[in-house]
Amino acid sequence: MQITKLPTGQKTKKAGCRWALLIAAALFLISGCAAQGAKRVPADRFDYNGAIARSTREQMLLNIVRSRYLEVPVFLTVSSVLTQYEYDSGIGLGGIFETGSGSNDFITGDTILRFSERPTITYLPVEGQEFSAHLLSDIPSEIIFAAAQAGWPVDVFMRIAIQRLGAAENMSFGEIPAGGYSDSKTQVDSDFKKLKRFERMIDLIFILSDSEVIEVQLVEEEGKSERYLIIAGEVADDLRPMLGELRQLIGLTNRNRFRITDRVTNLKDDEISIQTRSVMAMMEFMARGVEVPLEHLEDGWVIDYGLQNSEGEMAKELIPFKMHSSKNRPKNVFAAVRFRDYWYYIDHADITSKRALSLIIVLFRLQAPTPSGAAPILTLPTG
Length: 383
What we know:
Elements lengths: L1 E2 L7 H58 L7 E21 L9 E20 L3 H8 L4 H9 L4 H8 E4 L2 E2 L14 H27 L3 E8 L2 E8 L8 H11 L6 E5 L9 E6 L2 H9 L6 H5 L25 E3 L6 E7 L2 E6 L3 H17 L10 E4 L2
Parallel strand pairs: 8-9
Antiparallel strand pairs: 1-3, 2-3, 3-13, 4-5, 4-9, 6-7, 7-8, 10-12, 11-12
Helix pairs in contact: 1-7, 1-9, 5-6
């Protein structure tokens, strides 16, 4: 910055003012740099938080697609996010003051401001015997009840995380045709019957729960907690047929108090069995809702789960999870990943599928052990 000639008689006073202004401006800039560090914290914290949340959704989405293509899921967890900030600032001032007529006064100055950020992100692979055991183990039924009490959508939870409640069995999720079925058409018909019965059971549970006909109670017995399904003694006439239908679907006797257990054999007539799914099984089940490109079906890359039953209904329409595919990058999506030259995504307006994806991410985090520091790590300096 250069300031040229000052008129005689005013130069001393004005030069002093300009020196003061230049110094004040420099100090302001330097102090502003000092305050930038604190200002960066909320912005960067939310930016990294959002990026990790988005990549977590996309990673789970990708692994569900991999399951659809009969590939092994792979998980990486963000172990640490470190970032360094560098602020450089400087000021240079110079001046020439002359006295006498015709003299020229000059003030020169310059400032230097530099900012740089060097983030380093460390990834750890989630793998090993302990992780595999958790991934393949059925989730504890207590998680389902805890989620219900916390306000999670229990209907989505039951459709995805429960394989059997009493005599009511959910849709299978393995190979087609599975053992015991002569062909895929027979299995699809069987799956439809199971899924419809299971869906009807969930509807009845919600209706009767809202009407205070049934409830689940936590009871302390002999130093441990037990959960019981309690049926009201007095039931309104219009609700009795529904209660009778629920008893028939689950296989309940005429008792009004049933202990909920994880056992599936040697059940007493006052017990009801609940069989949950593993995280891996839930991913396989949700993979049935993946919309596969026709060319991949024709090439035999995937199993055709979209077969119709004998009544012309499509199996995937009853699965509470929908993932679309597109050759072009989609818009207005909750999560999207590219795989085998196609985009796979969940529409932002698909509330049920969004809940289902969020649910399995939470369950995965609950089941997955903390990665060991001895595992191979991948550290990426992104700056």
